Amino acid sequence: MVHNDIQTLFAESLNELKLTEKQKAVLNASLKLFSEKGFDRTSTSDIAQLAGVSEGTVYKQFKTKEGILTAIIGPFIQQVMPKAATEFTNEVTHTSYPSFGEFLHAIIKDRMVFALNSMPQLRIILHEVITNQAIATGFSHLFENLIVGPLGQTLKHYQEEKQLVDWPLDRIIRYVATTVMGYVLPAALLHGSVDIEHASREATEFLLKGLKPA
Amino acid sequence: MVHNDIQTLFAESLNELKLTEKQKAVLNASLKLFSEKGFDRTSTSDIAQLAGVSEGTVYKQFKTKEGILTAIIGPFIQQVMPKAATEFTNEVTHTSYPSFGEFLHAIIKDRMVFALNSMPQLRIILHEVITNQAIATGFSHLFENLIVGPLGQTLKHYQEEKQLVDWPLDRIIRYVATTVMGYVLPAALLHGSVDIEHASREATEFLLKGLKPA
Amino acid sequence: MVHNDIQTLFAESLNELKLTEKQKAVLNASLKLFSEKGFDRTSTSDIAQLAGVSEGTVYKQFKTKEGILTAIIGPFIQQVMPKAATEFTNEVTHTSYPSFGEFLHAIIKDRMVFALNSMPQLRIILHEVITNQAIATGFSHLFENLIVGPLGQTLKHYQEEKQLVDWPLDRIIRYVATTVMGYVLPAALLHGSVDIEHASREATEFLLKGLKPA
Amino acid sequence: MVHNDIQTLFAESLNELKLTEKQKAVLNASLKLFSEKGFDRTSTSDIAQLAGVSEGTVYKQFKTKEGILTAIIGPFIQQVMPKAATEFTNEVTHTSYPSFGEFLHAIIKDRMVFALNSMPQLRIILHEVITNQAIATGFSHLFENLIVGPLGQTLKHYQEEKQLVDWPLDRIIRYVATTVMGYVLPAALLHGSVDIEHASREATEFLLKGLKPA
DNA sequence: AATGAATGAGGCTTCATTCAT
DNA sequence: TATGAATGAAGCCTCATTCAT
Question: How many inter-chain contacts (A to B, CB under 8 Å) are there?
């Protein structure tokens, strides 16, 4: 089964950790509140209340409030994001597309949906990435290993078929990623909606031109 | 004279407002601290101390802590960003470039420098934009009026000369902007350095291809 | 004017510090509570309540609870104890006693009264001295400089007159001090009363024998 | 076999009580932690951890934290101190000394060693004695029965032989005890070392003079 | 206009104690 | 009997905000 949002993926990942039901409730509640109000504006009593436990319980396993964040970010980097990335790249590499254009369109659409579905959760990550260099680096590696790597085979294939310009793969992926963000971010920030069909076609059109072989 | 960073521009803009020296000191100190630690982690006593005034003074003009932020964001939207944008578009529209390629390269380079110089301050904006929809909308209009508008003439010119694809101007600018961000953001987050010369040439190469007329 | 208890001396000493009335109230309340219940069993809200101020005020000047203790111990070592010691030695050195025996009896009696009057406050010091080596050392120097020093002249005088054994002064004072404590401490701990007249005579009798020249 | 420190004596005493291994572990751990950090600064989870049991187990036998203290103080008063006292007085009364001077020197030296070896544990007692009047009284009786009583025979003997002044025994013992403390306490508090040989000779010299028959 | 002492609500955290397993 | 998750009261401390001077 393939997921297209992060909160669900996260809740599932918690089952692999040694946590009681209440502890999981704390993490789920924290993820929700941190997403909505940000880390600093979420109080530990907010968390306890939403999780339906006492404040003491919040601290039983996650020694500090920061510890809760770490307990969220950890699985995120070690499990949620990898799983999401793997699901994505698996799907991509196991499907055959008639042309680079259709391949491109497919992944752009897929990632737009994913990003929009996961926007609130991605905000936590964004905040952490802004604040915490170690986490930023972690994500950078994640990106390298889980996206650039697996997509490599497919992209190389299109390069050999002369459907894709002969640039380094990370450069190509950079352009794809930022172009997708260029559509998703403004919509997310302005709380507007995106016509994904239209946006993905536009983005594909631009990228196809820009990434055409010389 | 043209500025290439925001803190300086901000300090100058304050001179145009009816503020005592102490009030200006408060705003400058606040901008600095908010940039470094974020709004929530900056205390009003931190601000008073850095500004060299009493806490009472901080509250004399800016009724609340939120009020300080507003007093910063206000000038930002009404003066600093417009001035930055105008300086940019003026320079662009008053200079003649041999070709669209050279024009593109020039503005990409210029904006990369600007963004990298102003990164800490842009973080406040980024954080506010994430949290506060009204501010996000304000920025959106700013962008529309100050960038898309003034640049319009020049871009249209290149479209008429068949050096630039015949797409709506905001779409074109979106791609330019996101591509620049694609180079600047990772460097900023990973605290790495950017080879601006190289990055701007790469970005230009990609955009030229992607924005070539059909 | 000569004081024979510590709480009064302490309250007077506070006037020499730059503290508001409320801050002084905090310190006086703290001294009282720490004396009665001990540091660990006194809560900051207890202190605030007894001092008649808000808890915030408690922390305005004394950054931490430990800071309150320091703010008490500091004046104690720097002002209260020196003043007490000086008042004592002054009185002793400016009075002439017919014999060493009467001199001894006078100071023993005086110190018994002082110790019994100041017992609750001395408990804080005792606790600190047990826990904190630096403070223990501070007291040791205090003792050396303020007691052994000033008393030196007088004792030497009695040594020359062959009324006092020819031992080092600190050894002699050690015996006097511990003998006094031997009467005061049990009474203080058992909350019993002391017949000072009787106790001081007994102690004098013993010390006179023990300190008689060979 | 004769002991010269309290922690060992305590551990042995526990064997005479009907306690499971875990209960004993709890008491030993508590004694150690209370000695090191004091009662108030020792948490029950600290104790559980050091004892290698769960927090639940700690509460199974000792209903409250205070109960642990009682369970320590009890054996202390009922067994440890009596045993220590008895071992001491037995040794003293079963050995014959050529003179009161040698007798005095022997017991002074012995008690100095004992006090220095047991200093950390004595601190708990000291703290409790300061705080808790009942315990203080208990100790007072202990002292009376276990020291003054047994030593009585020996001291009377020396009084009859005119080697010892004809004062009440508790008065004599008071002076011996406080003089010993006068050497031991400063060293313990300043974490200095004591030259026991020298100190005991000095103390003996003084006491011999002070306790000489008229 | 400027000061800074004072406030009190609320945040994070600890810890003695209980109870279902 | 032993466990350890769970509790909730209470502790220490911060901070935006007010107000008398």
Answer: 79
Chains in contact with C via at least 3 Cβ–Cβ pairs below 8 Å:
D
pTM of the model: 0.79
Residue A1 lies in a domain: no
**D window 23-62: Cβ near strand E (< 7 A):** 41-45, 55-56, 58-59
Render pLDDT for D46-80 as a digit per residue (tens, 0 to 9). Answer: 999 999 999 999 998 889 999 998 888 887 777 77
Q: What are B79-111's pLDDT values in tens digits?
A: 777 777 788 788 877 888 999 999 999 999 988
Which amino acid appears at position C134 of this protein?
Answer: A
Residue A37 (CA) to nucleotide F3 (C1'), in angstroms, measures 38
Question: Into how many domains does chain D fold?
Answer: 1
Task: Quote the Cα angle for B137-B138-B139, to 5°.
Answer: 90
Contacts 24+ apart (CB under 8 A), A86-93: A86/A146, A86/A150, A87/A2, A87/A3, A88/A114, A88/A147, A89/A146, A89/A147, A89/A150, A89/A151, A90/A150, A91/A2, A92/A150, A92/A151, A92/A154, A93/A150, A93/A151, A93/A153, A93/A154
Q: State the nearest Cα–Cα gap between B69 and chain A, in angstroms.
A: 16
D1 found inside a domain: no
Q: Which of D126, D177, D182 sits opposite C175 (nearest CB)?
A: D182
Question: In this structure, is residue C1 part of a structural domain?
Answer: no
Indicate which CATH number applies to the domain containing D92.
1.10.357.10
Task: Classify each residue of B31-49 as buried b or exposed e, where b means 16 or more C-beta atoms within 10 Å of its C-beta.
Answer: bbbbbeebbeebebeebbe
Highest-confidence segment of A192-206, B145-159, C108-122, D179-193: A192-206
Report chain F positions within 7 A of protein CB atoms. 1-20
- With respect to residue D149, please indicate whether it lies within any of the assigned structural domains: yes
User: Could you tell me the residue range of the domain that residue D165 belongs to?
Assistant: 6-210
DSSP state of D52: T
Q: For D213, which residue in chain C has the nearest alpha carbon?
A: C209
What is the amino acid identity at position D163? Q
